[in-house]
Amino acid sequence: MSQAHIEPVRGGYVHFDVQGKSVRVYFETAGTGQPLLCLHTAGSDSRQYRGLLNHQQITDQFQVICFDLPYHGKSSPPEGWEQHEYQLTSQLYVDSIIGFMQAMDIHQPVAMGCSIGGRVVLHLALQHPEKFRALIGLQSGAHVAPYYNLEWLHRPDVHGGEVCAGIVSGLIGPHAQPVDRWETLWHYMQGGPGVFKGDLHFYKSEGDLRELIGQIDTTHCPLYLLTGEYDYSCTPDDSRWLASHIAGAQLSIMPGLGHFPMSEAPQDFIRHLLPVLAQIRDR
Predict the structure, then answer these.
(1) What is the topology classification, in CATH, of domain 11-282?
(2) How much is the pLDDT for 166?
(3) How does residue 149 score in pLDDT terms, banded at 50, 70 and 90?
């Protein structure tokens, strides 16, 4: 039996406007120093970064900041959400991140995102490179073709959370411990109706960057790519193709890890992340 303790993580809510709508966004933070802004995957929330928030070697030098996008986790949808279908677009995603940074007075963070977060850091590199010290893409690709019927993700006759978890379960690497595997899936089971589907609108269609990634200038903002080898959503070859089309991008393939490295195997992932953070810190 583990000893009772309180984690060194603080949480709260911040209010700001995104594209003319007021949002109430939940965030968690731990540590001091260089801001490290963490972006969760589609249909999930910032609990995926629990390992980083509790890793003293990281929090001694970085202020880890995670937030739930509106509609996700403990962030409710904006007023009037029931009147339209939720669809995440690249501009809404970017505006939400920049709005959060402004509301929280965050300057020159290292931004790290996974899956849809790994895609949006590429959009940030194109639109706002001057606002970031560095960008880290986990499971980053320029485009992902749909490989299942998205209509199953928002139907009244099926349990949407269990369908979402079933879809992503195969993306977890084979070496994940059961406790981490099932906590990762639990986050998906708790997603709001239609949220995973709405996020995939950005990931699988609207957010396609294949024609634009050559414009990313890593001399303005360094770009690091970390990809787990067990991932058929964003394969290592997808990330290799991406890196080959962005001059100066640095790519590492993480053996044994899947699509959710920071939550499915936190300690293994952190061993790959620490050298990247050290390189960013020493620049």
Answers:
(1) Rossmann fold (3.40.50)
(2) 87
(3) low
Backbone angles phi, psi at 256, to 5 degrees: 80, -10
Domain boundaries, the chain: 11-282
Residues 6+ apart with CB under 8 A from 194: 85, 86, 153, 154, 160
- Looking at residue 157, its pLDDT comes to 77
The yes-or-no verdict on residue 188 having pLDDT over 80 is yes
**pLDDT tens, position by position, 232-273:** 899 999 999 999 999 999 999 999 999 999 999 999 999 999
Q: Is 172 exposed, middle or buried (0-12, 13-18, 19+ CB in 10 A)?
A: buried
- At 24-82, the pLDDT tens digits run 999 999 999 999 999 999 999 999 999 999 999 999 999 999 999 999 999 999 999 99
- In sequence order, the 6+-apart residues with CB closer than 8 A to the CB of 255 are 229
CA distance readout (Å), 171 to 19, 157, 202, 208, 274:
33, 25, 19, 21, 23
Query: What single-letter amino acid sits at 25?
Result: V
